[in-house]
Every structure is written in C-alpha cells, then in structure tokens.
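User: Second chain of the day. Same drill as before.
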Amino acid sequence: MQSKIPLSLIVFCYNEAGNIGRVIDLCCKLLPEISSDYELIVVDDGSSDSTADEVMEKAASFPALRLIRHEVNKGIGNALRSGYAAATKEYVCAIPGDNQFDLALLKEVKPFDDSTYYAFYRINTGYSTYRRLLSWGNRLFNQHVLGIFLRDVNWVKVYRLSQLRSIQPRLTSSLVESEICAKLYRKGVRPIEMPTAYLRREFGTPKGGGWKTLSLAIRDMSKLVWEVYRFRS
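Assistant: Same format as last time:
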C-alpha cells in the first residue's frame, strides 16, 4: 500500500493448527508496515484441534489481535460474516488461515473509494479435476445468472467497510462472496483484479471442496438469486 490506511484484517480458519500461528506471525509483521490503524480479527469456526489455543498464545503478545470463536463449525460463509460484522476500520480484508495467500501482495493495494474494490485471483491452484469442475460451474453461475465476471470470486478481496455495511450480506454459505460482489456490481462498483500465486499448504487438508461446504452452497443458490434480484442500490 502506497500510504498507510486503517485496516481490519480478518483471518478465518477451521482446524488450522500448525498453519494459524505462522499466518498470525506474518500478519503481525505486515500490519504496522501497511496500516496506520489496524486490527487483526481471527474467526475460529468451531475448530476441534489446538487452533484456538495457538491464537490465544499469539494474542498475549499482540494487543491488536482478538479471537471470535464459533462453538460449532458453521461454515465459511458464517465465518466471513462474523469477521465482517466485527470489523471497525475503513478498509476490510479477509484471508484464509491455511497460509496459502501471499500476504505481501497487500502492499500493492492502493487506497480507493467506494467505486471499486480489490479482488485477487489465483493463477495456478493445482486443483484436482473435481475441484476444477466445481470452480468452472461456480464461474458460469456467477457470470450467466448473477452477471459478475470476476476471475476468482472465492479468493481474497479488499473492501471498504462502508461497502459491506451498505449491502448487508445475508447468506451463510460460501456463496456470501458471490452475494457481496453481485450486489456491489448492481451499485456500479467494479473490481481491480490482481493475480496471485496459490501457496502450498504445509499442514492439514483443504476443506473448501468438501461435501458440507458444497451442500450448503447448493441450498443457498435460490436464496442468492433472490437476494441479488431484490437488492436495490
């Protein structure tokens, strides 16, 4: 970032022991460099491993860090909504706790107004055929049903808090990012897209393509279409 700006950095995670501590260390190093007034919000979505313990250990030495913990696993959408609702700074960014996003890329983000936002896209995911098919279907749905042409709607964004407050996201599945981007599109807000590498996961297994995540998204499709259709800028 060329000038320091107020930033809420949200890390959402589920069973990311081994990864989350490293992510927090990187966030704690980066935030003073890029932000004039910052907070680090970790949303633990009902982890059953030592994720929460690792977060609390880090919080003891980084006062800007606070933990939001779901007692049970509620899914990516609810984790994102909890983080967005808790954010208080002018700019808001949510990243996964698996350490697969290169945080250094946030240095490239310039201050922006309500007419745009930043949307990162992965240039090489290394996905299995199954995950590639899911991503392809999701992209077609976004383009032909919702009318949004993002390269990677489910990857990292940087919004203004005022944008999130103005659209009031309602979905609870992973489709919440599609809802946000579609509503912003209807308001005339267009993204600045930036490519990113997709870093290798060091611990644990990916959960984004699991049946629970997929079934919640399928359940929410009709609700998403209705929410976008009825939204007025």
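Residues 124 and 198 are 6 Å apart (CA to CA).

User: Great, on to the next one.
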